[in-house]
Amino acid sequence: MKQLKRVVKQLPDVLQGNKMKTFGNILFLTGFFSMGLFMKSFIIGAHKPQNEYSYKDYVKYFNSKDIDWLARNIYHEARGESWEGMLAVGVVTLNRVASPRYPNTVEGVVKDYKQFSWYWDGRPYTIRDRRAWKMAKAAAAAVLFNNDLSVAETLKDAKHYHAVYVDPYWADTKNQITTIGKHTFYL
Fold this sequence. Notes:
Layout: H1 2-16, H2 19-45, H3 55-58, H4 65-78, H5 83-98, H6 106-111, H7 117-120, H8 130-145, H9 150-154, E1 160-163, E2 176-180, E3 183-186
Antiparallel strand pairs: 1-3, 2-3
Helix pairs in contact: 1-2, 4-5, 4-8, 5-8
């Protein structure tokens, strides 16, 4: 601080001509100003909340079979849904993996006999919408690696869901929990 006051006092001298002093003081002021900007951006940037996770936040670090199969399931089951709707499909898929009544891998759960229509309907399951695919991969990673998702708490025991525009035979035998987007979820 003392040095800054000294530089400010010498500013008239700098403006009048002493070239060596001028050059040194300009360098000092430039460095001092740059350090202040750096610290400001560092401090402010550290407290910015993140509302939604992007593909790059997770997926570039992980390339596992579980993420891939979970992302495929989210993509084909909920690609037109909100972020929360995509997470919800992922949570139910992982709830099945954790249950002794279903296979113990994401791939096994997705391929389980006639459990997910996209896998069993006989149509090709090509990824065509790249933006939705990236969101599905980010949602898969978020579900796998974030234990504190509010949708996971809401759906902690849910193992079934269906689109709101269908009426499956089993819906009356389950306890309905909630509806998120175009899907109704059950225990």
